[in-house]
Amino acid sequence: MNKIMFLSVGALVLTACSQGANDESLTEVSTVGKEQESVLVVPSNLKLRDGQLTPTQTAQEKGVQDGLFSGELQVIADNGLSVTLLITNTQKYGVPIQYRSGKTADLHLLAPDGNRIWAWSDDMMFTQALRDVSIASAEVIRVGFEVPEKVLQRLKGRGYSLVASYAGRATESERAAMSDVSLSLDPYIR
Questions:
Q1: How many domains does the chain have?
Q2: In contact, 15 and 52? CB cutoff 8 Å
Q3: Model's pTM, two decimal places?
Q4: In this structure, are residues 170 and 133 in contact, taking their beta carbons and an 8 Å threshold?
Q5: What is the pLDDT of residues 15-72, one digit of tens each?
Q6: Range of the domain at 160
């Protein structure tokens, strides 16, 4: 009987390794009595469900992006602004995404009070076709935008910002695909 219990614990340890367990390891606690009994202690970042160790959900810290992907805005000032949104799949697996139009992302220019004063998509038209894709682990998608010089010339003072919104929706997760990404325009406005 002890051999079967020991093999079960060994299988759980191997499962934890394949599930990406961190440096906290499983511990076996033994009690001495008529029969030796083993108890499995599971670290707080894992839970045992259906014989498998799976990571537990942890609360997000403030400022941490809660989406499946991370986003970054890069800006080059040249007769307006050339803006690139980098969307990176930070998961250890591919994520199925659905787009509900031809738009992959949008870029908004916000006034210091938070009101939208310009959007890249204002003068665009997009197909209404559904697109289903899978974004591989660590894959980076680049989406380019242009903010015209005439739009920048209307800006007076400081406090303006760009906000990029990703249009993709994760089809197999309740989490957002990506949180909005914002960037202050203070360094780019004269």
A1: 2
A2: yes
A3: 0.65
A4: no
A5: 444 444 444 334 444 444 445 444 444 444 444 545 554 443 333 333 345 799 999 9
A6: 69-188
